[in-house]
Amino acid sequence: MSADPALPYRSDVEVVGLLASPVHRYDGRPGATVPAQAADRRERLEVRAGIGVVGDRYAGKPAHRDAQVTVLAVESLETLAAELGVAPFDPLLGRRTVVLRGAEVEALRGVEFSLDCGEGVVLLRGGRPPPCAWMDTVLAAGAHRGMRGRGGVRCAALSDGVLRLGPAVLRSAVLLDPAAAGRARPVAPRRRGEA
Fold it and tell me: For 73-101, what is each residue's pLDDT tens digit?
């Protein structure tokens, strides 16, 4: 299969974490304890265009059409842990659907990109970063503020496909710098009426 000419840039990445949850683990205001996570870890996810991740609490919810899949660079968590002087974080505690190694995820805001894990290409459109005040509870004090500009991207699912742990190919409309994967990028303020 030839590469999509609209996505000319190729990055070899690794999917280091996948998550789908039938219930909301970080509901309401942050508490003092970390909710159980083990049941949400996946080795493989099915993605449906316009729906999201099969079996996830947000699948098919109109309010989440631009946040059907969330993607994060594990380097962001590694850099943050080093900055805060704490042990490395479990990458799935950030509650992102897909955690990648080797991708400058923050550069994917507002652009289409694809992930190919060998079982069908998943086309996504990157959007705004996902905020979460729970990061101070589940990661470390200061993590919520520290994740600003490097907390990943919310994405709309534009095609059906399968994601699985292991090596993958990311194709994008923009050239990505893997060395910048853990660096924060400024977040543009929301415009009136923007979700």
Answer: 999 889 888 988 988 888 887 778 899 99
- What number of CA atoms fall less than 13 Å from residue 177's CA on the CB side? 6
Task: Show the tokens assigned to 48.
Answer: 């449906």
CATH 3.40.50.300 correct for 9-21+39-169: no
H/E stretch holding 112:
strand 112-116
Question: Six-digit token pair at 113?
Answer: 């990109």
Q: Quick one: DSSP state of residue 37?
A: -
**CA 135/CA 118 separation, integer angstroms:** 32
Helix H or strand E encompassing 79: helix 74-84
pTM of the model: 0.84
Among the ranges given (23-32, 36-45, 69-78), the one the predictor scored with the smallest mean pLDDT = 23-32
Report the pLDDT averaged over residues 11-16.
97
Instruction: Share the mean pLDDT of the chain.
Output: 83
* Pairing of the two strands 122-126 and 112-116: antiparallel
Q: How many CB atoms lie within 10 A of CB 101?
A: 18
Rounded Cα distance, 132 and 144, in Å: 7
Residue 159: other Cβ atoms inside 10 A: 14
What would the 3-class secondary structure string for 137-171 be?
Answer: HHCCCCHHHHCCCCCCEEEEECCCEEEECEEEEEE
